[in-house]
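Q&A log
Question type: sequence-to-structure
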Amino acid sequence: MTSESPRQIPLGAVHFGDLKRLSPIGRDFGYDRGTPVDRYYIESFLTRHAVDIRGRVLELANNEYTRRFGGVRVEQSDVLSLKADNPNATIVGDLAVAGTLPVAAFDCIIFTQALQYIYDLHAAMAMLHRALRSDGVLLATVPGVTQVDVWPWYWSFTAASLQRLLADRFGAINVVAEGHGNVFAATTLLYGIAVQELSTADLDVNDPAYPVTIAARAVKRAVI
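Response status: OK
Response body:
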């Protein structure tokens, strides 16, 4: 794919093709066609930080990423769920409710694509921070440019807002937040096109003005 400037395409000469429509190609983020585009960035992020996924690990809803990226480094795998009927759950509860997670229990917490559903973000962040052991790592991702689904969706994020949210609890020096994606990747996600229909060379180009996924690594340092 070429990178054209706005002036290289004359006014009225844009070819919309299959994208000239008022409804998306798929409404399930791309799951109905394959792997959603945002999952490409989430999994790339976890691949880069796989060494952090070790010891006792907590993940939300299921432990797919714990097993996939942690492998033999994982000694104990826990799953947090809001719903008691989740067969994967080892801990059931709401992050905004005190006492949901044990204190200083986890070496790593994988928390992907969920902060936007939590109204009391600061309470949730305090809970996640408290649940980590000293030098434990939170690997968190949130949507950037995206479809909004049917669940109560309270917040939209930028790399700056996620950085600040985490820094308020972990300390700025212990947090790195970054956006991944570009205008093409964002467009394909909005239309529900899957990764399998795209070239990863196009997805690997980052434009900070069009983040599809915002990812952050935060480390809990001991207070001296």
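Response note: Residues 37-48 form the longest helix (12 residues).
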